[in-house]
């Protein structure tokens, strides 16, 4: 299964993805980790072109892993998936691989997201150097509503609550997402 983790910066995508991977035996495939693994610091652009390139690699990794163990849960992280074409690229690969897919959209109050971003910046605890309140505002302004079936996870709630709700959808017998 391919699980696309969407949402604005600071909404808890990576935290949720890591916890879901631990609980499902799945794998997080992270755009930020891939970017830092293949580009030197001076080559990192944080451009849409470079993000799309990294997403292509993420999808190749997902395909490789899924072809070798179809019981895996692959969690795609590190991109807000703020544009429809980004989601369509993921769904096309899922269809080509004959894999089910889910979209989990992380949301929280703007105050919470901005506080998380400030904390991460102060602690320098996130790989993406452009991940700040300015990026939050930019992405929010251009975020295209996700019109595909999805589950909305309110990450203002306790992490355990968010994880349990996401697991309910991942393990649902009909594989259908819902608004949580």
Explain what this protein looks like in three dimensions.
With 180 residues, the chain is an alpha/beta fold. The protein has a single domain (2-170), classed as P-loop containing nucleotide triphosphate hydrolases (Rossmann fold). The protein has helices at residues 13-24, 31-38, 48-68, 84-96, 110-123, 133-142, 159-170; strands at 2-6, 27-30, 74-77, 101-107, 151-154. Strands 2-3-1-4-5 form a 5-stranded parallel beta sheet, sandwiched between helices. The radius of gyration is 15 Å and the shape is globular. The two termini are 20 Å apart.
What can be said about this structure in brief?
The chain is 50% helix and 13% strand.
Instruction: Report the CATH architecture.
Output: 3-Layer(aba) Sandwich
Instruction: Provide the residue-averaged pLDDT.
Output: 90
Strand ordering within the main sheet: 2-3-1-4-5
What share of the residues does DSSP label as strand, in percent?
A: 5-15%
CATH superfamily: P-loop containing nucleotide triphosphate hydrolases
Instruction: Assign a percent range to the helix content.
Output: 40-55%
Helix/strand/pairing category: alpha/beta
Oligomeric state of the chains in view = single chain
The CATH C-level class name: Alpha Beta
- Shape field: globular
Largest sheet: 5 strands, parallel
| Rg from alpha-carbon coordinates | 15 Å
The name of the CATH topology is Rossmann fold
Number of domains: 1
Order of helical and strand elements: EHEHHEHEHHEH
């Amino acid at each position: 299964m391919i699980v696309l983790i969407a949402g604005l910066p600071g909404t808890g995508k990576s935290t949720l993805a890591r916890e879901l991977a631990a609980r499902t035996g799945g794998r997080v495939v992270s755009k930020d980790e891939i970017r830092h693994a293949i580009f030197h610091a001076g080559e990192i652009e944080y451009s849409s072109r470079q993000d799309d390139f990294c997403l292509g690699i993420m999808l190749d990794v997902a395909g490789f892993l899924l072809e070798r163990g179809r019981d895996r849960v692959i969690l795609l992280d590190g991109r807000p998936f703020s544009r429809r074409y980004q989601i369509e690229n993921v769904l096309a690969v899922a269809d080509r691989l004959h894999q089910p897919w889910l979209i989990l959209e992380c949301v929280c109050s703007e105050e919470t997201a901005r506080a998380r971003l400030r904390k991460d910046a102060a602690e320098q605890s996130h790989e993406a150097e452009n991940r700040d309140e300015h990026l939050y505002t930019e992405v929010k302004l251009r975020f295209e509503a996700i019109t595909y079936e999805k589950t909305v996870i309110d990450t203002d709630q306790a992490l355990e609550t968010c994880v349990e709700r996401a697991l309910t959808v991942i393990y649902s017998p009909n594989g259908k997402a819902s608004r949580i």
